[in-house]
Structure formats: structure tokens, C-alpha cells
Amino acid sequence: MEHGLNGKDDIQIKLMEEECILVDESDKKIGSASKKVCHKLENINKGMLHRAFSVFLFNSRNELLLQQRSLAKITYPDHWTNTCCSHPLNIPLELEEDDAIGVKRAAQRKLKHELGIESAEVPLDSFKYLMRIKYKSENVPADNTWGEHEIDYILIVQKDVTLNPNNNEVKETKYVDSQGLKKLLESESSGTLITPWFKLIANEFLDGWWNNLSSLNEVTQQTKIYKF
């Protein structure tokens, strides 16, 4: 077994074979590589960058759905994060770029895979594409093997949905209001694990989106790539 995968979950190892989309700094496709290759720290440190998405799903009470990543995850196990975070794949349906339709299809696919949310409950036209964020981070706890270097599409959905989480992907779920999220972020100082991209987004942008769920066009910046 390759270094970095020794002792890891067989299902998660298999998922590392999925083919992600490599992009340049302006999010133009320049190739593809396996999830494993994309997340290797040695490749990230050489500049390898891939496309990703982060879904923020709110219910009709304006509460945000969070998930705690399972202990089986190879990157960021046991971390709290936003509703769903993953990657569009290097396949025709998820490569289409008009209105980020390929990314939305990937988000729909992963909401079903991770949380058991049926596609009919989150149709493609329910996803609002807001902006893109470029960031880089190393796995926590640091292992000198894995990390993230992504251009992350932000997708907002407001729907009441039925959850049936996949235990191999998700340890726990909960809905929070803004005060509940603040308490979660503050609990990091006492040992709660939070993914770096979620913490970044929560600190920089989330309040503005949360306060404008009924008028998201006012906070939409689809041509902008924020770089951190």
C-alpha cells in the first residue's frame, strides 16, 4: 500500500481514484488527475490546482446544515464543515461550465452520496452559484502527505430536505442558526476540529450570504475569484 494510504478505509481509498479537473489560476481547465494525485502535498507545493465546490444548504427556518466528516475520511477526518464539499469530475456532464451547471450536477451527486438527499429535493435550478474562492491548506493533523489547493465554487441552496447520511462519509449532522455557528467556531479553541475552508468562508463571507438569502443576486460575484 502506498505511503499515506496505509491502514486507511478501503472505500475511501477507492474514491481517491476519481478523476478531478486540473485548472490554472483563472479556473481554465488544463488537464485532469486522480483525487489522490491532486491532494498529494508534494504536487500541491509544485502548484497543482483543481476545481471543487462547497454547498451551503439552508432550511426554511434559515438554519444552515453542517456535517462532521467521518473518521474514515483520508483528508480532514472528524472535522466539522459546511453541508457538502467535494469536486466535479472529469466527465462530460460535470465539465459543462455555463452557469456552473457541471459543478451543480456534481453537487447534486455528492449530496445524494454523502447525505442521502434525493436529487428531486435539490433540483439543479435550486442551486445558486455565488462566487469562487482559491485557497490552499495542509491536512490536519499534519501528515506531510495530504492537503488541498482548490478553486472552490460556492453554491447556496435553500430547501427542506430528508437526510439519510452515509456513515462512511459523515459522522454527524446538525442545523445551526448564526449563534450556533458562532459557538461552534469558538469551540475550536477547546479542541473542536473545523475544516480550514469552512472557517475561512465563515469568517470572510457567510454572514453576508445568510443575511441575503432572499436576495442572493445582491451578493453574487460569479466573475470573481477571491484568492487566499
Structure explained in plain terms:
Strands 6-3-8-7-10 form a five-stranded mixed sheet, covered by helices on one side. Strands 5-4-9 form a three-stranded antiparallel sheet. Strands 1-2 form a two-stranded antiparallel ribbon. It has a single domain, classed as Alpha-Beta Complex (Nucleoside Triphosphate Pyrophosphohydrolase), CATH 3.90.79. It has helices at residues 10-15, 35-39, 41-44, 92-95, 101-115, 178-186, 196-210, and strands at 19-23, 29-34, 50-58, 64-69, 80-81, 84-86, 128-138, 147-158, 170-176, 225-227. 34% of the residues are buried. The longest helix has 15 residues, at 101-115. The protein has 228 residues and is α+β, with helices and mostly antiparallel strands. It has seven helices and ten strands. 25% of the residues lie in helices and 28% in strands. This is isopentenyl-diphosphate Delta-isomerase. InterPro entries: IsopentenylPP_isomerase_typ1 (IPR011876), NUDIX_hydrolase-like_dom_sf (IPR015797), NUDIX_hydrolase_dom (IPR000086). One of its GO terms (cellular component) is cytoplasm. Pathway: Isoprenoid biosynthesis; dimethylallyl diphosphate biosynthesis; dimethylallyl diphosphate from isopentenyl diphosphate: step 1/1.
